[in-house]
Amino acid sequence: MSIDFTHSTLPCFLDFEASSLTRGSYPVQVAWSDGAGHLECWLIRPAPEWTDWCDQAEEMHGISRDMIEERGCDITWLCRRMNRALAGKVVFTDGVHLDRFWLQRLFVAGSFMPRFRLGDVFKLLEPRLPPPEYRAPDLLQGLMAQARRDTPGFAHQADSDVRYLLNLWRRVRNHHPAVSCPDPRRRVIPAAPTEGFSAHQQAVSSSLADEPR
Q1: pLDDT, tens digit (0-9, with 9 covering 90-100), for 167-212
Q2: What single-letter DSSP state applies at residue 39?
Q3: I need a labelling partner for 153 at 20 to 30 A (CA). Which of 39, 75, 189, 207 fits?
């Protein structure tokens, strides 16, 4: 995926919280950010046919069925609002398969078609990191941990998770310029397997790994 963003234009991000992780699940909260980093977050009043509920999911996101019935916004209004805000955009999420399922459930219930599409945030981030052979294996995981620490609130709340994705994007973007021209001397050389090798093959492999670069 090749999508360019200037330093003044951010990718759009989205996150859903849901009633459960089953096939009968539906979204209970959605948050998204626009190209300026502005964020919207809404509880979703369930459609009459949405009856699924999981107590463990409620414990994770802290949203009760009573809360969405009393304070959730109308599905038709929300579909219109999302289409106005995100029309023509690729909106990135870190759980793209589940989020596509919940997006479909929302827009089918509202009798709308989304005017935007979801993208995998990891396909957005990966090209902006050094090639795998020039980076530590845990680089992305470390940036993710730093971004989570930078983010107020709790995981599994849609607005907090969108802020986390914004922070992760900034971490990756700010990290990348320093490594945009990989130094061959920093190449990560995996350890050569020795099982089943003869003593001569092991010596050759070891000497190649020790050659100056």
Answers
A1: 999 989 887 544 434 445 555 545 555 454 444 444 434 443 444 4
A2: E
A3: 75
Order of all β-strands in the sheet with 117-120: 39-43, 27-33, 12-18, 90-93, 117-120
What's the start-to-end Cα distance of the chain, in Å? 32
Considering only CA atoms, which of 98, 87, 90, 89 is closest in space to residue 30? 98
Contact between 160 and 151 (Cβ < 8 Å): yes
Q: What is the crossing angle of helices 158-175 and 139-150, to 10°? A: 130
pTM confidence score: 0.77
Strand, coil or helix: what is 33? strand
Token couple for 94: 């870190």
Q: Do the Cβ atoms of 123 and 93 come closer than 8 Å? A: no
Separation in Å, CA 71 to CA 17, 173, 174, 201: 15, 37, 39, 69
